[in-house]
Amino acid sequence: MNCAVILLFTSSCCICSVALDTPSRAESKKLKYLFDPPVYAEVAGRRGDNVTLPCILKTKPTHYRVKWTKLEPELLGPENIIMISNAHASKPYGHLGLRASLRNAHAMDASLQLSHLELADGGIYRCELVNGIEDESVDITLSIEGVVFPYQSKKGRYKFTFHEAKQACAEQDGTLATYSQLHRAWTEGLDWCNAGWLLDGTVHYPIIHPRPVCGGELLPGIRSYGSKDKDLDQFDAFCFTSQTSGSVFYISGSFSFQQAAQACKRQGAELALVGQLYSAWRFENYDQCDGGWLKDGSIRFPIRKPREHCGGIPEAGVRSFGFPNQMTHLYGAYCYR
Ligand SMILES: *[C@@H]1O[C@H](CO)[C@@H](O)[C@H](O)[C@H]1NC(C)=O
To answer: Disulfide connectivity (predicted)?
Structure first.
């Protein structure tokens, strides 16, 4: 009976489309061995945290393996296996290496533990019970808690190809944001009138206060330019970062860029990266009403409690004065240690 159902499923799959083999597959079938819905369908953690992706057996078939794979955002390409285990042993695979382990809290536990979370660990994970006849699976979303920040080239607006945008985010302690990270940032108040690359090669910008110069008087929302040519088209970047292990501090002064770098060095620190400043703003409520140099040569300052004389913008945010001449002696220094 079950075989017949599977055959039917398989053959119809060949005729219509690959859409049948999406994460929703698990929901369309009543599971015999795995708890479904899973204990938590979504797990969240910050960079550096340890998390557990739950997967619990209800009953055990005589012979089986449990296979953990990551589906997104690397959906394209070969299957991304993280862990394979049977009743006796388990073996980690792939890029997570020893950061992945099985929790093994009890006899029915196939939950996956990930330690020292990294920015790129976010995505959809699948716990699959494989016994050769009735394979079944549950999907769990891991979201990295963090902050999205728009990033523009020193050379001006819309100067990054996709690859340059990716590189620019990495240099500021971030990654290119995913669409869902940008969407979440929009729900939390990000309004930005310049289009930027996302990790999947699409270009978007988030608007809360619709205005004619920013895509017209449409409803608030995320404006989309769709997929763009990664080698030819040029835009800004939306970067994503999370908690950091160090902290950001401000040194007051009227420094040139070089002097600011030396002031940090004297404190055993370095000029902060843009991502590090955003992380401190987001996770430590860092608020400092003074423009200061950052390592990329920009001047910024983080505001949690908006006030008239600190930029005059009614929303919290990290303000930017762009990239002034590095000889300008006007600003303090934001350092990271
Ligand atoms: C995370 O797990 C590792 C072992 O894998 C442990 O050394 C570390 O202290 C844990 N970190 C936290 C924040 O719990």
So the answer is: 193-214, 289-310
Structure tokens at 308: 């008239």
Tokens of 246: 């160090």
Lowest mean pLDDT: which of 77-86, 121-130, 210-219, 323-332? Answer: 77-86
Q: Residue for token digits 């299957």?
A: 79
Alpha-carbon gap, residue 156 to 252, rounded angstroms: 28
Cα 290 to ligand 1 centre (Å):
36
| Residue 206 pLDDT | 97
Which residue minimizes the CA distance to atom 5 of ligand 1? 115
Which atom, in ligand 1's list, is nearest to the CA of 99?
5
Q: Which residues are within 8 A (CB) of 220 and not within 5 positions of it... i.e. 6 or more apart?
A: 207, 208, 209, 210
CA–CA dist 245, 295 (Å, integer): 18
Q: Which domains are seen in the chain, by residue range?
A: 30-144 (2.60.40.10), 146-241 (3.10.100.10), 248-336 (3.10.100.10)
- Specify which residues 302 forms β-bridges with: 318
Could you tell me the distance, in angstroms and rounded to a whole number, from the CA of residue 149 to the centre of ligand 1?
Answer: 28
**DSSP class per residue in 166-227:** HHHHHHTT-EEPPHHHHHHHHHTT----S-EE-TTSEEEEEESS-BGGGTBS--SEEEEEEE
Tokens of 196: 């930027």
- In the structure encoding, which two tokens stand for residue 156, read together? 């001006």
Q: How far apart are CA 43 and CA 90, in angstroms?
A: 22
Which residues line the pocket of ligand 1, CB cutoff 6 A? Answer: 49-50, 115
**Among the atoms of ligand 1, which is closest to the Cα of residue 116?**
1
Residue with tokens 């005729």: 15
Which 3 state secondary structure label does DSSP give 201?
coil
How much is the pLDDT for 23?
Answer: 46
The total of other beta-carbon atoms located within 10 Å of residue 102's CB is 20
The 10s digit of each residue's pLDDT in 249-274 is 999 999 999 999 999 999 999 999 99
Atom of ligand 1 nearest to the CA of 48: 13
